[in-house]
Design goal:
Number of helices: 3
Number of strands: 8
Distance between the termini: 11 Å
Helix content: 25-40%
Strand content: 25-35%
Largest sheet: 5 strands, antiparallel
Length: 160
């Protein structure tokens, strides 16, 4: 597959085809978050232990409760840190893979039967349809950039 234009903003082209990789914008990796949480535990439990040794016995249980609540929030964040969408066009097929909380879904479309619809409404996702299937993409892209992504996918499907 050879595309004449190489003016894709979000896609990467190779000899195998065109690929769009859209990921969640995460400023902290799960490993960094684990390190931050461990240092928080040491500091918080150290301070609580000091006050417990001074006779303030309720400080330690409240510190532990706080750390459990923070751990729950961090786990929710880490669970979705690797979320993303991957759209590939190769060998006459458009493949859409979406990963959410460690679970991957995959939809495969025949290139000639695909319709890409982008709504002009702010906040609406791009809908890819074909062969009785439908999937919405673009959730990890700003809403004002979604029409550009839809145009790129249409352009690649046409082979322009």
């Amino acid at each position: 597959m050879s595309l004449a234009c190489n003016n894709f903003r979000f896609a990467t082209q190779s000899d195998e085809g065109v690929e769009w990789s859209l990921k969640r914008n995460c400023s902290v990796t799960p490993a960094q978050l684990g390190g931050l949480y461990a240092s928080m535990c040491v500091l918080s439990l150290g301070v609580a232990g000091f006050f417990w040794s001074q006779g303030a016995t309720l400080v330690l249980p409240f510190a532990a409760l706080e750390l459990v609540a923070v751990a729950a929030a961090f786990l929710m964040y880490a669970r979705h840190a690797a979320d993303g969408e991957r759209i590939r066009l190769a060998d006459g097929r458009l493949v859409v893979e979406q990963e959410t909380a460690g679970r991957t879904t995959r939809c495969e479309f025949v290139r000639d039967w695909v319709r890409v619809e982008s709504c002009r409404d702010a906040g609406r996702l791009i809908e890819v349809r074909g062969g009785g299937q439908s999937v919405k993409v673009g959730r990890y892209l700003r809403s004002d950039l979604r029409p550009i992504l839809a145009r790129e996918i249409r352009q690649a499907l046409r082979g322009v």
